Amino acid sequence: GTPSGDKHAVEVKTDGTLWTWGSNVNGELGLGDQGVNRSSPVQVGALTNWSKAVAGVYITLAIKTDGTLWAWGGNYYGSCGLGDSYQANSVRRSSPVQVGALTNWSFAQMGYYHTIGTKTDGTLWSWGINNFGQLGQGDRVSRSSPVQIGALTTWKKGFAGYNFSMGIKS
Questions:
Q1: Distance (Å, rounded) from C-alpha 160 to C-alpha 152?
Q2: pLDDT at 138 over 80
Q3: Is 83 helix (H, G, I), strand (E, B) or coil?
Q4: Can you tell me whether residue 3 is helix, strand or coil?
Q5: SS3 for 89-143, per residue?
């Protein structure tokens, strides 16, 4: 299974369909609405090409079988990686939105308003809040779009915690 978020969960079935349930304060269930919680799993759209999904704090991330990365929900501090951050209701996303145009994402995990992702080329990426340096960029500047961490191509997976991140190399 996939990890659950703060108050919601997401799962990809073996048939490639995507399902969410729980709290939907910021549209994190991806069902096109906000504020309507679901106590049972509900399918997100009709697509059958979802591969992986993870629920974070008020957002959800998912990777399709084509390697594209998708995000939706509250987008606090740019944690969706869509180039903007939550300033008004219009920036929240209640349906999946593609993060960039690349097709080589292999893994992504949410921390507390930040995300760590890996690509199939072995690079490690981060975005979101950076008040403790959890983005691994050598500073405390938050990023609203994915930024590569260093230049190494030997990362297998990156993990995000509450206010920290770590990675496993191949």
A1: 18
A2: yes
A3: coil
A4: coil
A5: HHHCEEEEEECCCCCCEEEEEECCCEEEEEECCCCEEEEECCCCCCCCCCCCCCE
Backbone angles phi, psi at 107, to 5 degrees: -160, 145
The upper half-sphere exposure of residue 167, i.e. CA atoms within 13 Å in the direction of its Cβ, equals 26
Residues 6+ apart with CB under 8 A from 145: 78, 81, 82, 83, 100, 127
pLDDT in tens, 17-76: 999 999 999 999 999 999 999 999 999 999 999 999 999 989 999 999 999 999 999 999
Please state whether the predicted TM-score (pTM) of the whole model is above 0.90. Answer: yes
Which amino acid does the sequence have at 157?
K
Q: Are 19 and 44 in contact (CB under 8 A)?
A: yes
Sign of CA dihedral 160, 13, 67, 25: negative
Q: What is the distance of C-alpha 52 from the center of its chain? A: 10
